[in-house]
Amino acid sequence: MTKEECKQVVIDIINDIAPDEDTTDLKPDVRLRDQLDLDSMDFLDIVMELRKQHGIEVPEADYQQLASLDSCAEYLTPKFNEKKAV
Amino acid sequence: MVRRPREDQYDFLIIGAGMAGMAAAIRLGHFGKKVLLLERHAIIGGLNSFYKQDGRKYDVGLHAVTNYVPAGTKRAPLTKLLRQLRISHADLGLSPQNVSRVAFPGHDLRFSNDFALLESEVARVFPKEIDRFRSLTEKVKSFDELDLQGPKLSARKILSEELHDPLLIDMLLCPLMYYGSAKEGDMDFYQFVIMFKALFLEGFARPFEGVRHITQLLLRRMRELPVERIMNCGVQSLRAEEGEIKEVLLENGRVVRADCILSTIGSVETAALVENDVPFLRQNDEETPRLSFVETISVFDQQPVDWGWDETIVFFNDQEEFAYEQPDNLVDPRSGVICFPNNYQYPDEKTLAEGFLRITCLANYDRWIALPEDIYKEEKARWFEEMVRSARRFLPPLADAEIEKHQVGTDMFTPRTITKYTGHLGGAVYGAPEKIRDGKTPYRNLVLAGTDQGFLGITGSMLSGISMANLHGLQSG
Q: What is the pTM of this model?
């Protein structure tokens, strides 16, 4: 999986959990929280969906890694690729 | 001990398929929890339901969905609610109100979903109070009403410090009490803030098809998820042992166990189900609901607006001082709420097929319950007339003959009806006077949600279910 594909996975999840948010022009390097009306409960939903849809576990200590699309890609892409390799 | 079969073991048991219970079930279902949702009645929705009579569908409870904000409004309870249930704003199909009014002797305050209207009305009617009203508004806006641990505060006490004119205080309290207070005379300040935001800072809306549009939407969401639902089946008893509920006996004879039990049926009502232990709440004066309501519904073969009745909701009171308390009589017709479900801005200028006038007044549960059947019917008929007469004083005048000519149906529900269909003690609509904000009980795995947690209205009830599901179902792992 490329980093761009990984970003799309996160965007798809956000579209799922926040159907009224416009995710078409998200800036990858800006915190998601500053661009969208997301609170801590919504981030919890993102974590849950990563587990449910993709079997990716994000421990609580790593939640801040999901701050922006760029940081999501940095953090999650290796996890996706590790999983594929297994 | 014999190990129970897996099918009788649930992650969550939710008691009551009202707004709070259904919202919690959806939330937990999203995350793959094994959920059992029980409803004693044949219809979902609890206090917000509907019934059919003479070929007509009548809404119960819902005058308006409060907390209405347009799609995309940031940080609003409605936005949060939709997000958490993964429902889009458009699916909810809400149409905003026209305009509403608080009508007291010689004084009217109009308000709409645009807060500027109420502000300008306060400036017009209470010019000396406007600065203080604005500062009160700021205080309300910055108050964290979602703090589950804060102290209990009297709204009247805080209002009398913030505002000087007792009439303005009563005029503000009247709609907020009618739409959500289980307490006589005063409100908890937390409740005041929740209601002030819900009614004045946000607003009223309604789906064209009424509350069943919302309950059906929730039902469809539940069907997509691993939620098992049993209708016509309540809880017989909760068996407590060592600070937790070990087993739940259902009315159909089944025995189930659950890691967490979420009860939305009311605090006193839940306590009454616990056996093998000291009940955690006794039915005493402080906790027993004393406020109940009657509602009349008049159906017309024309739209209310044709008579100049173009407002959405009118909160009326004919006394110098507004008394929100249990009446000595069967009904207190001196104050109440008038609602015209027709008067919302429905899409494409759609209109409801018939005209509806609904009037709500405070009622005395004990007196209604004590009536023998034949007298009950007589009293219903008598108070129907009385309430319509009282309410019409606050509407543009109309000849009695004109009403008679166009009236095609009537119905009325009383505190007896409420208890019969919802199981709420005392015909209560807004739950017990004392709220348990964090939903905790003395039992580790028994949690309360719904009106007795203190969140009110449809939006509040659903948020209550969601917040408890999140707290006990998701965050704890």
A: 0.88
